[in-house]
């Protein structure tokens, strides 16, 4: 996650230095913007002249951390606010660093966790106003985000939170092992059928094509699929998309369930692959031929591919390697015109 810090006074810039250093130590990418007169002194970026358009360009992509009055933050973000599923996480901190408040996208965007994290590091107070946080109740959106699960129905998620806050219990069924201490409002069900004993249930199963929608059950499929892709030079985004669509038909998944795309390093600048990854906001990783060669067993071998790339099967090896030792190959190499594709899944671990 990239965090953009906005400060407006000399004291605010001093606090921004402290906040930035702590976030960087935690592995975040951080940029700080301030008024022009403070830039040289602190080495920060200057606010663009058109702040409204600038905030719009960051919206939904970066976390915004304001140091100053909450009113300033509200006025600057107001034109861009839509909903918690697409809004940027927005936080505000006073320039003395006493309080930090997550204003928007607290759970889905992670503003609450950012507030807690920085508050602990600089000895500030995180001011949380979300009902499930205040009441210390199970929050399905936090649960989904922390476990890499896809929130398939926003309306059901809100209804589950309302049911929990009213003091009712909900059921949870998962085909994957669940670890951790269950809150009293969440009950583990041994079968899907038991979910129907509760006002609402949460179901964590396989891919989209394997589920049927039910009115009082919220599906949280895992985002754990890896696409291994090989292709001819000069491949187009459309050809990549067509190949993926065929794989989707075979396995019954959607792009939302894909966590990354992988290939050989010879393809790291392949425009069609890069465009497809950017379109779906998926990370694109590559391996060397030597790394791919460490995969011991693949379903097919191509002497032509080996001569060109140094390895006999790019897509399948890439998928298996990316899925990890405890992953699983779901679809071996398939040839789709000028594209080869394989699909693997990373092991799913569910924690309460």
UniProtKB/TrEMBL annotation:
GO BP of this protein: cobalamin biosynthetic process
UniProt-listed Pfam families: CbiG_C, CbiG_mid, CbiG_N
CobE/GbiG C-terminal domain mapped to chain residues: 225-344
TM region positions: none
Domain Cobalamin synthesis G N-terminal: 58-133
Residue ranges occupied by any Cobalamin biosynthesis central region domain in the UniProt entry: 138-215
Protein name: Cobalamin biosynthesis protein CbiG
């Amino acid at each position: 996650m990239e965090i953009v810090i906005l400060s407006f006074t000399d004291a605010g810039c001093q606090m921004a230095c402290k906040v930035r250093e702590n976030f960087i130590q935690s592995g975040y990418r951080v940029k700080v913007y301030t008024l022009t007169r403070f830039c040289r002194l602190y080495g920060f970026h200057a606010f663009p002249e058109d702040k409204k358009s600038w905030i719009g360009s960051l919206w939904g992509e970066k976390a915004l951390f304001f140091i100053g009055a909450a009113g300033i933050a509200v006025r600057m973000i107001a034109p861009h606010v839509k909903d918690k599923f697409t809004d940027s996480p927005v936080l505000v901190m006073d320039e003395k660093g006493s309080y930090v408040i997550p204003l928007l996208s607290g759970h889905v965007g992670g503003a609450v966790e950012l507030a807690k994290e920085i508050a602990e590091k600089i000895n500030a107070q995180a001011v949380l106003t979300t009902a499930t946080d205040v009441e210390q109740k199970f929050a399905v959106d936090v649960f989904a985000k922390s476990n890499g699960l896809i929130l398939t129905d926003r309306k059901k998620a809100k209804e589950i939170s309302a049911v929990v806050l009213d003091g009712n219990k909900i059921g949870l069924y998962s085909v994957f092992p669940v670890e951790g201490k269950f809150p009293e409002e969440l009950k583990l069900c041994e079968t899907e059928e038991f979910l129907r004993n509760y006002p609402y249930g949460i179901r964590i199963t396989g891919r989209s094509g394997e589920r049927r929608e039910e009115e009082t059950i919220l599906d949280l499929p895992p985002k754990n699929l890896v696409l291994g892709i090989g292709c001819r030079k000069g491949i187009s985004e459309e050809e990549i998309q067509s190949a993926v669509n065929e794989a989707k038909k075979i396995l019954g998944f959607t792009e939302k369930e894909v966590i990354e795309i992988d290939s050989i390093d010879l393809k790291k600048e392949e425009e069609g692959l890069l465009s497809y990854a950017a379109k779906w906001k998926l990370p694109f990783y590559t391996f060397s031929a030597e790394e791919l060669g460490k995969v011991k067993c693949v379903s097919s071998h191509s002497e032509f591919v080996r001569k060109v790339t140094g390895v006999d099967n790019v897509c399948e090896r890439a998928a298996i390697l990316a899925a990890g030792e405890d992953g699983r190959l779901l679809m071996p190499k398939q040839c789709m015109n000028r594209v080869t594709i394989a699909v693997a899944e990373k092991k799913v671990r569910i924690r309460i």
